[in-house]
Structure formats: structure tokens, C-alpha cells
Amino acid sequence: QVQLAESGGGLVKAGGSLRLSCAASGSKFEVYAVNWFRQAPGKEREFVANINWSGDRTQYGDSVKGRFTVSRDNVKNAAYLQMNSLKPEDTAVYYCVAGPTLAAWDYWGQGTQVTVSS
Questions:
Q1: What percent of the residues of the chain are helix, what percent strand, and what percent coil, each to the nearest 5?
Q2: Which of 25, 57, 87, 95 is most buried by its number of CB atoms within 10 A?
Q3: pLDDT digit string (tens) for the chain, length 118 residues
Q4: Which of 97, 67, 93, 66 is nearest to 4 (CA)?
């Protein structure tokens, strides 16, 4: 098992940037793929980005392509989501999710709130 804890959320103005971190503990983090999801009030959960175990393969949701960058540091047992050019519609709770494959969402963090003001 792996335990995940997101951090780095907060309030930012439109056009600003935030970097979310996902700290992992427990089992070997380097064997897990990592997904980032978000959920805004009253909306369905939305895929944001993912990265495979080695970090050489990434995918992004259409709404964040070109603005967000996902990365990981297996030595530090952490994954990151760099968010640039933030928009009010990016406001949501962001979740870090780990699993043995990109399609396996076995372990979830508690989420971190991102609020983008206009």
C-alpha cells in the first residue's frame, strides 16, 4: 500500500501559477503510476494528467494541455503538478491517485483545494 498526501493548493488570481505536490509513503512509490484528478462543486470528477512509473510518459486532459505539467521524483517519493495560466474554471479539489498502472486508481490522497479568482 501507499499513502498519498497532496499539498500546495491555495487561492490565486487568474493567470497565476501553483505547484501541487503529492508526497507518498509506505510502499515503493516508484512502481506506481500517478494520476491527477479534480472535482469542482456540483461537477463530475475530471481527469487532469497522469505519469507512468518511470516518468517518461505523460498524458493530459484537453482542458489543461499546454498549461499544466506533471512530473515525479522517485528519489523523493513525490509527484508534482505545475499549473500555469490558471483560469477560474480550474477551481476544484485536486486529487493525487496512485496505482500499478495508469488505469488503476487504487490509492487516493485527501485532496487539496485550488481556487482561482477572476
A1: 5, 55, 40
A2: 95
A3: 899 999 999 999 999 999 999 999 987 899 999 999 999 999 999 999 999 999 999 999 999 999 999 999 999 999 999 999 999 999 999 999 999 998 999 999 999 999 999 9
A4: 97
Residue pair 10/80 in contact by the 8 Å Cβ criterion = no
CA–CA gap between residue 83 and residue 22 (Å, rounded)? 14
Chain CA centroid to CA 95, Å:
6
Residue recorded with cell 508534482: 80
What does each C-alpha distance from 26 to 30, 65, 97 come to in angstroms? 11, 31, 14
